[in-house]
Every structure is written in structure tokens, then in C-alpha cells.
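Example 3.2
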Amino acid sequence: MSETANELFDAGLERYNAGEGPDTLIPVFKEICDRSPKLAASWSCLALLYLLENKPEQAYKVAQKGVKLDPNAPQGRVNLVLAMLETGQKGVREHIDVIKQLMAHDSEVQGDLMESIDDGLTRKPDWKSLSRVKNWLTED
């Protein structure tokens, strides 16, 4: 019996959290997106993996899909902002403002985002765009 998209997603997330690299996880998340194209979180994860692999154009396209599917997903918006910064797109501030609003309404969102950002900086320590986003999100 083959795994469902949700099972594949959970397994892919576990592998990511265990330290597996984007090179082997990108095909997994591509398959999840193909199987369940309306699962916004899978698009967000794929965008992050592309960003970690220095493929911002691909990240931008899939991050847009994720945010379109779930405009209230803060991590999806962070990944879209990163892809926008990496590809020189305009309109970043609007997304930062939405993320800040989402963080203001739910303190757990802020904790989760900062944990994710710190993870990104651990995996890619000299990631200037991610450092900028972190500064924007933590400024008053």
C-alpha cells in the first residue's frame, strides 16, 4: 500500500528535522505537491528547500502557490519574502506587515517562526536575506 500525501509529508518533515539535506528532500516534497496540490504546507516546505539549495526562482514560484492556498500561514509568507528578496522582487514590506500581524495575534506563531528562522540560519549561517527578515520581524 502506498503512503498518502499526509504520511509522506510527515515523514519528509521528520527527515528534515533529523538533519537530512534539501537535495534528497526536494523530490519528496515535489511528489507531495503533485499528489496533494492544495496542501499549502507542502508548497511552503518545498520553497524552503529550494532556498536552502540556492534555487530562488523555483522557490519563488512554489512559495507563491503556498501563500495563495493559505494566505494566513506565516511560514509560507516568510518563505515567499525570502524568495522575493533573493530574486529582487518588490512588495516585501506588505508580507512582513502581514506576518507581524499574525505574530501579534498568536504568541505561539512568533515562537514557531523564530525557531524556524534559527534553524535556517543553522543550516545556512551566512544567509543575509534570512537575517534581514529576522531583524524586521523582531523590531518594534
